[in-house]
Amino acid sequence: MRTLYIRHVPDPVAEKLEKLASLAGVPLSTFALQELTETARRADNAELFSALPSHDLERSSILEALHASRDER
Hints:
Elements: H1 11-24, H2 28-42, H3 45-51, H4 59-71
Helix pairs in contact: 1-2
């Protein structure tokens, strides 16, 4: 496991992170690690999304299908 040191964090950012950590009931380092972990997890989303097949669907046809489905209820 690595240790990261983050320098030059603007005061307003540090204060906001400290407040969020306090509200979450965890130390700042734990909160920062949770946020970094979540950001790293989302980094793969763009790649996954671009690998999905593309469909030529028009917004109107989607809305029509949605309305028809709701009308059946």
